[in-house]
Design brief:
2 helices, 114 residues, globular, alpha+beta
Length: 114
């Protein structure tokens, strides 16, 4: 039997109508990036799961709905919540900002000269 998985979410960006979160498994393993857009009464979500991760998507979405979406809009209708899930591989990241969040950098970027 697999150990219980604890998902946590860290918001890295918030605008008036959208948010971006990083999702972690057991607090230290980044497994996904999540983009949420609020349009009227509708909520559109894109989940980018790290290519190397093999996770239970249904459990992740349940945690996302309980911990993030329902805390932002407690009385939303489930029919107004749409999600698309992708497996993704980060190729590179870039910023002119010297204090750019190192969470997005991978050691392999430097090795590959990216």
């Amino acid at each position: 039997m697999r150990d219980a998985v604890n998902y946590s979410f860290s918001r890295i960006l918030r605008t008036l109508s959208s948010e971006i979160y990083l999702a972690y498994e057991n607090k230290d393993n980044k497994i996904a990036e999540i983009h949420i857009h609020y349009v009227g009464a509708s909520i559109f979500c894109t989940v980018l799961i790290e290519e190397s991760e093999n996770i239970d998507v249904d459990n992740l979405l349940e945690a996302l709905e309980a911990d993030v979406v329902s805390s932002c809009i407690p009385d939303y209708e489930r029919e107004d919540f749409s999600v698309v899930v992708f497996k993704a591989k980060e190729m590179s990241s870039f910023s002119y900002d010297e204090n750019y969040n190192e969470e997005y950098r991978h050691e392999s970027d430097e090795e590959e000269g990216l």
